[in-house]
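If you are new to this repository, start here. Below is one unmodified record pulled from the training split, so you can see the exact layout before writing a loader.
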Amino acid sequence: DEFYRAEGGDAPKADGLGLGLAIVRRLAGLLGLEVEIASAAGRGTTLRISGLPLSEPGAVTVPRAHRQHPLTGLRVCVVDDDAEVLAATATLLKRWGCEVAEFTGLPEAACGCDAIVSDFDLGGDLDGLDVIARLREMEGWEVPAAILTGRSEPETLKRLAGSGIPLLRKPAHPAELRALLTGFALGDEAPEDETAAS
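And here is the target side for that same chain:
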């Protein structure tokens, strides 16, 4: 787990934040590798990474599909009625390699998106949940989607929780948005703690 460090009994306290193995696990998952860890008290820890194809002794070949970040080329439809927030979100996603279609309301037609990120309050008759539902109809499949909102009323939060669509609170932390979109790109289900309860 991130930021977890096992403390040894009499061993001196080691430097570090407890991120190393969490990073190894995540990178291995992206590359389709297996990580095994075995520890023996007082003797140390062995870390074994397996699953890399070897073309010749000592030469490692990483499959082409795994050479770039999963967000590279991900087509994201961003909907926000605030032009400045829309531009800022689109700029951030483009920096991550996403292809972005920007809208201040419901698009008139399908845009061929792989994911949807919508503000909840859109200043019109439709809110973010409505826009996501209609976009999914236009696209013809259950496009992975996320809602961004600053709303905190119990009724609104209950409706958002019942939708099953992950919710990120405004201002959304870029790392949370990136992790959520990466999960979409890899076909992961959104963790429960990233839904309206988060």
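Two things worth knowing about this chain: The helical segments are 20-31, 83-95, 128-139, 154-163, 174-186. Residues 1-54 form one domain.
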